Aspartate--tRNA ligase
Amino acid sequence: MSPRTPIKHLAPLEDGPVRVAGWVETIRDQKKVQFLVLRDESGAVQLVRPRPEGDDDISRAISGLSLGSFVQVDGQLKHDERVKLGGIEVKIDTLEVVGRSLPESPIAEDTSIDKRLDWRFLDLRRPEHNLIFRVQTTFEHALRTWWIEHDYIEIHSPKLMYSPSESRAELFQVPYFETVAYLAQSPQHFKQMAQSAGFGKIFEIGPAFRADPSFTSRHATEFVSVDAEISWIDSHEDVMRMHEELLVAGLTAVRERHGDEIEAAFGVQVTVPETPFPRIPLAEAKQIVAENGYVVPRADEDLDPEGERRISAYVKEKYGHEFVFLTDYASNIRPFYHMRHADDGALTNSYDLVFNGVEISTGAQREHRVEVLEQQAREKGLDVAELETYLEFFRYGVPSHGGFGMGLSRVIMLLLGLPSIREVTYLFRGPNRLRP
Ligand code: AMO
């Protein structure tokens, strides 16, 4: 059997025999001639067949087609400038209905996102949705390539855990034989363990789970977390330097491979950011947004989403940059494992990275001195006994280290200018969504 030609590869071919396969997008069943538009994952092409007197098997098959059916066609490619769709058409010789579709699609372009997610497999057939996942593939591949070129080891840490990985908030528990397990909220413990194990530089791209009941455009109960952790650092500055270089590599690859398609499909330009990204201490960022007329509701907390939007707008205007590192968060709003400033225990060696108005990442230098770590856990009211397995990692000599976690869907959403991570997550999971 000769393989089919992806539709986007037809245009440069010479006129002659081709095999194409795809979903029937439109049918124009006229008296003298029948037209179909066929779409595969790469593009769309017009198919044509003059109708024989008195019909035959093929013309009857075309008349009986339902939209969305998957067909394979052998035919003759012909270049013809008058054909609106790409200046080519394929004259049908044979047509095989491979998979027949029910006649009415349950969704259309203007269907609500919730209903589209019910029918995600149909929703994903749209070419711009296909593009989202090609962009994501390119982005992840570029990150991996950068890490490999810089001697990182990839780890796959377990997602079934003996203790919470972040805090007791947003924790999924599952029965585990005679005991209970927790779904990993992050690979935090195990990426730090890799530093004690002497791996030096590691990364992981894997699932993370949060029992977060919120319905915002940026939260899911399961998401893909992009994580890295490195040893021998002086401060969070070393982590930020790695983080920004990595993003430049990822965005360069996306721009080179998909820049034009992204602009055509989503109307946004992919910008490769300049390094270093702007860095603003959180306290200063709060002051800046306050001076710009927005007072963060709780003075002792992080910037809220509106605050993030505002600081991002400020940075965009002042530095022409889509990214900003907000640094030196107060220790009362950071986890116990963040290292605190040597001269000011109220501040941490940590940062959040905001991209086009939304937090995409948290990073920090970690506290590697076990007695200090234990003390900080106690101060936060944590159960130190529950943390014992984690604390052991630090009792046998561990280098200074730090790293970050970054939500993959958030990056892709912001990169493409889309309104919700639901649009860019292959199968979204939220408080009300366990299907399909
Ligand atoms: P944090 O909890 O800030 O940090 O998470 C890191 C990043 O993960 C993404 N994220 C989410 N994405 C979708 N839905 C959610 N419910 C969700 N929660 C978090 C965000 C966020 O910035 N262990 C630390 C990271 C580290 O210090 O290495 C952590 O998990 O993009």
The pocket of aspartyl-adenosine-5'-monophosphate is lined by residues 166, 186, 188, 210, 212, 219-220, 223, 225, 227, 359-364, 403-407, 410 (CB under 6 Å).
